[in-house]
Design brief:
Length: about 425
């Protein structure tokens, strides 16, 4: 176990963009308003990811980009909502997706470097942000007039290797349904394979009850004056005084989460799929998520044995039953709310992105793109050495303290 800092020498991958355009479903799709659950409303932010692949002689860069462009057009038929645009229903005050076939983004780029020159692909690299752009380009620069919910980028390297980057609004899919989407993307890259997963789109399975019935207090949530269209506040390492949003269309007036000086709250996203009665369909597309939380005084955490802290966190999911989950959805129907915790840990260890096989093979490493969010830690497997990564972003003084405590803990016998 080691702390690996970002590689500053490759924060600029010397990327040249060759194509930045919209692609549309390959067949006509139904025009409709797409219902979003109260939980979907809370995750209006982009999640950029990357997937590295070795060179494959059968798929040179130009052929690969053409094939991937056709693949995106194909998958936008069963995933037509991913070619739509967010809109605010003025009557309900809630977000919906306008399934208007406005298109998803498709970007082709190349780097002056080879994968060997970049070096350790497991090492956090700010330059990987260039592999999953979040805004389409036009002749004058970023096009801020259109905001596709999904952008796929293919970037080739001088060695023939390449990366697939995806920038996806979390409203579209959670981790499990994103894995299914990737499997379908891979299957459609073959010449004769059907969809691996038939996506289930009815998100009204997570609609609030009528009338809403709140059976619990839900201390893990707090009422907010942030509108659904703004998205949740983002705590950035470059702005320690408060919060700011990453995208212009979600900006403005975000207030920090309420905090206390003597306690801390640790949260982890939890899938509601197996916890509901009956369970949600296995191929449900959406965000059947809630946060399991553990709260303790800071001094108690510092003094308690590590095993006690692990037990406290491990017991948190047991609170989330069917009735608790329904009560959360009903609470959100009445209150415009957000998770209360100071820090969230999101585990991708069981999602299986590394298992998806394209015609050119499996990815050699993948994960979330490095960012400056200091309120969340992503844990994900590395495809190269069989280990796990924890992506932590903190301002320099806080990172120094974190690394010191990290080494102190792993060099001790107390755990």
């Amino acid at each position: 176990m080691a702390v690996i800092s970002s590689n500053p020498s490759f924060e600029n991958l010397k990327i040249t963009f060759h194509e930045s355009t919209l692609v549309f479903p390959s067949q006509e799709t139904e025009k409709r308003s797409f219902f979003l659950s109260n939980i979907d409303q809370m995750v209006n932010y982009n999640v950029p990811t990357f997937y590295f692949f070795f060179a494959n002689p059968g798929y040179p860069p130009e052929q690969l980009s053409k094939r991937l462009k056709l693949v995106v057009q194909r998958v936008l038929v069963p995933y037509d909502f991913m070619a739509g645009r967010l809109k605010l229903n003025k009557e309900s005050g809630c977000l919906e997706i306008d399934c208007n076939a406005a298109g998803a983004g498709f970007v082709v780029a190349s780097s002056e470097f080879s994968l060997d020159e970049i070096g350790d692909l497991v090492c956090p690299n700010v330059g990987f942000q260039q592999l999953a752009v979040q805004t389409l380009q036009d002749n004058l620069g970023p096009n801020k007039d259109d905001h596709p919910l999904f952008i796929l980028q293919v970037t080739s390297f001088r060695c023939g290797g390449f990366a697939i980057g995806m920038s996806m609004n979390h409203i579209l899919l959670d981790g499990f349904s994103a894995k299914g989407f990737n499997e379908n993307l891979a299957s459609q890259a073959f010449d004769d394979k059907p969809l691996v997963v038939v996506p289930f789109h009815d998100r009204r399975l997570l609609a609030a009850r009528s009338p809403p019935h709140m059976a619990f207090q839900h201390l893990e949530l707090f009422k907010s004056d942030i509108t659904p269209a703004s998205g949740p506040p983002v705590f950035d390492c470059n702005d320690r005084r408060g919060s700011k949003n990453q995208q212009p269309q979600r900006g403005g007036g975000a207030k920090p989460y309420p905090k206390t000086k003597c306690t801390t709250r640790r949260e982890s996203p939890l899938s509601l799929r197996p916890r509901l009665i009956p369970p949600l369909p296995a191929t449900y597309c959406g965000n059947p998520l809630h946060v399991a939380y553990a709260t303790a005084k800071c001094q108690d955490i510092e003094d308690m044995p590590f095993s006690a802290a692990v037990k406290m966190v491990a017991e948190a999911p047991a609170r989330v039953t069917e009735e608790y989950a329904r009560s959360v959805i009903d609470w959100l129907e009445i209150n415009n709310g957000l998770p209360r915790g100071e820090y969230m840990v999101s585990s991708w260890l069981k999602l299986g992105f590394e298992e998806v096989e394209f015609p050119w093979g499996k990815n050699l490493n993948s994960g979330p793109v490095v960012n400056h969010r200091k309120d969340i830690c992503w844990i994900f497997p590395t495809g190269i050495d069989g280990g796990d990564n924890a992506l932590v972003s903190l301002p320099p003084p806080e990172m120094q303290r974190f690394e010191s405590h990290f080494h102190q803990f792993y060099n001790s016998d107390s755990h």
